[in-house]
Design brief:
This protein has about 180 residues and is an all-alpha fold. The protein has five helices and no strands. α1 runs parallel beside α4, α1 runs antiparallel to α5 and α4 packs across α5. The longest helix has about 60 residues. It is rod-shaped and about 95 Å long. The protein starts with a helix and ends with a helix. The relative contact order is 0.14.
Length: about 180
């Protein structure tokens, strides 16, 4: 009778250990997939900052160029940069269906910061269009462009820091799970 009891105990123990490893493997795969998405999200946020700087630079070039000079290629570049800027924005935004992924890094504070810079992002694009395509040369438009870019960059820095913080918390949970199961 004791040998039957030992066999059942052994079978149950091996089954529990097997189930723990299956759970660990599934959790590990899920976390690795999230980290892959997190890297893409953080990279996209960095690209969005870069595109805002490029929009400002191209708008300045168009602002200070002579009116008779052929600016068609620079306007095309500005238009492409604005398009890339918007695509990076849609990638980060959780409420759009355009090329977005589930963004586990968007906590309530991140979304509050994100919403607070949305007006600055729209004004940045509007000012760039006014200067780059409509030929507006007023200094006040230039100062608004700089102000909106500053607000946007400051907010994006905070968002990237939040993304990195939230991603780090996910990694800490993975390390804890790893230590617990092993």
């Amino acid at each position: 009778m004791n040998s039957k009891k030992y066999r059942i105990t052994f079978f149950v123990s091996v089954s529990v250990i097997g189930l723990m490893f299956i759970f660990y493997f599934c959790s590990l795969q899920n976390t690795l997939k999230q980290n892959e998405n997190n890297a893409a999200i953080i990279n996209s946020a960095g690209r969005q900052r870069m595109f805002s700087q490029k929009i400002t630079q191209q708008s300045l070039r168009l602002f200070f160029d002579a009116p008779g000079k052929d600016n068609a290629s620079l306007q095309d570049q500005l238009n492409q940069t604005i398009s890339h800027f918007n695509n990076a924005h849609y990638f980060l935004a959780p409420y759009t269906d355009i090329d977005s992924i589930s963004n586990p890094l968007n906590d309530s504070l991140t979304m509050a910061i994100y919403n607070s810079i949305e007006d600055a992002r729209k004004r940045l694009i509007s000012n760039a269009y006014s200067m780059g395509f409509e030929g507006e040369k007023e200094r006040s438009r230039l100062s608004m462009l700089f102000e909106d870019q500053h607000i946007f960059l400051e907010g994006m820095d905070q968002i990237v820091n939040r993304y990195e913080y939230n991603s780090n918390k996910q990694n800490v949970r993975l390390i804890f799970l790893n230590r617990t199961l092993l």
